[in-house]
Amino acid sequence: STGVETKEFQTEIRQLLDIVIHSLYTEREIFLRELISNAADAMEKLRYTQLTGPEVKDKDLTLEIHIDTDDTTHTLTITDTGIGMTKEELVENIGTIAHSGSKEFIKHLSAKGDQKDLNLIGQFGVGFYSAFMVADKVTLYTRSYQMESQSFVWESDGVGSYTITEGEDLSRGTKMVLHLKEDAYDFAKEETVQRVIKQYSSFVPYPIIVNGQKVNTVDALWIKNKNEITDEEYNEFYKFIANAHDEPLFRLHFSSDAPININTLLFVPKENLEQFGFGRTEPGVNLYCKKVLIQEKSPIVLPEWLRFLRGVMDSEELPLNISRETMQDSALITKLNKVVTSRFLKFLDGQATSEPEKYKEFWEKFNFFIKEGAANDFTHRKELVKLLQFESSNTLPGESVSLANYIGRMKEDQTAIYYVNGPTREGIESGPYLEVFRDKGYEVIYTYAAIDDYIFGAIGEYEGKKLISADQSDLDLGNEQKDRSELALPEEEIKDLTEWIKEVLGSKVTEVRESKRLVDSPAVVLSPYGTNSMQRMMQLMNKDS
Ligand code: ADP
Ligand code: MG
């Protein structure tokens, strides 16, 4: 009863295979990720069946993925103890019924010219066929979990047809033998296979054993319960995904089911490399669906100003076959992005109170990102502004105040938040702008960065209090009635003096007038726009362009 049946591949699959076999690829090692992900899926299904359904064959078999390399026969063998396939399933799943994504994928590939990026193959639901990027013959042995199942051998060179033969008495699961093409012999080397697994499949939730040795020590931590994870495990995981050697400054691990299913593990690194002039930091959060990697270092799952974060986002609600193109404008991604961003900002806000020292360190290193967000991200601006910290006339050097702190200690008659821009504390305090505020006992925020002024200008007010630049010429602090000193000049002389000064300065000034704000200094230069901030804003723009 070992008759060989030969069957034709369905048309679209034949077209797909034709491209897979005959093109040059940039990242063909991803075939291993696809086959490991299929093995893991098969075991996931078995686990589910075992939990919910009837008795399964070989119920004591451990759920493991074995990968064996043979450098002399140039073969790579991937074995799983998953759900396996019946003959009908073999025919349907591999060869006959093209996943709805395959047509789309063929179109995608055809549009790409000679160098084809096959990385997306799994996302189109046709990952199995990536085996033919490296193999000129694939032999697959499989036995279904069903008690009455038989063993089958599927074999093909990927050209036109495949055969199915009844096999020897196998144990449950699937074994795939890849007979490597000559230019792919490298994949029969243990080091190569280990490297590829490290890169793509470290977080597969089943042991991966290469030539008898377990290689994936790192678990899918983000799916686990927080109280089952040690600090060491978190740190190891961080070092792995962030390619870091030190420990993270903060970590946030949270799961939620509403408004969207999400498992997230985020880390703030110890250092901000942008601060050290390393150039722009690339985003570092990977997107998963049920532990299967959908997009590495995703540029869209979080806003740009969170590019310093490292970690993982995993949502069951993402369709596995989502392509990057459709992901870009997926409402689901937008929602994920918003939920996680808000949650992270809430976390930071909490840390500011619960761990002020650590938050201070965070603020010193990463404040620029938060400010960038506050300046550009309208969706989260309110939450971001809440996190801003500033030195002020009431703080010691190096200490800071948030806008909420500031409001909390405003003078009774004070109605606005005042700030003044200058390069340093000394610069600001030796200038004339603070005099009137000192006199009234009002706290003044010191903004050392131009972006601070930009943000204040953009938001205009906070919690109903206007944000007013102290170097504004039309500043009205209700000082008009302040007693004039006996030494003050009579009105007439003031008029003569200001006219004379205007004459001397000519077009360098637009107006000279008596000041109501000065206490000790004889004169102050003011601008309708706020001189300092304007200048610094221009500097900032020039620097950026
Ligand atoms: P996808 O994994 O997105 O469904 P693939 O092309 O990778 O697409 O695989 C096609 C189908 O082949 C799978 O859905 C599954 O039914 C079957 N399959 C592939 N590999 C295995 C395996 N190791 N064990 C059981 N079934 C498998
Ligand atoms: Mg697959």
UniProtKB/TrEMBL annotation:
Assigned GO CC terms: cytoplasm
Alphabetized GO MF terms: ATP binding; ATP hydrolysis activity; ATP-dependent protein folding chaperone; unfolded protein binding
Q: Which domain of life is it from?
A: Bacteria
Keyword set includes tRNA-binding: no
Keywords from the UniProt entry: ATP-binding, Chaperone, Cytoplasm, Nucleotide-binding, Stress response
CDD domains for the chain:
HATPase_Hsp90-like
- Name of this chain's protein: Chaperone protein HtpG
Traced from the root, the source organism's taxonomic lineage reads: Bacteria, Bacillati, Bacillota, Clostridia, Eubacteriales
Q: Looking at the record, which segments are called A?
A: 1-324
For this chain, the family text in UniProt reads: Belongs to the heat shock protein 90 family.
Q: Which Pfam families match?
A: HATPase_c_3, HSP90
Report domain Histidine kinase/HSP90-like ATPase positions. 27-184
What is this protein for, i.e. what is its function? Molecular chaperone. Has ATPase activity.
The gene name on file is htpG
Which species expresses this protein natively?
Answer: Desulfosporosinus fructosivorans
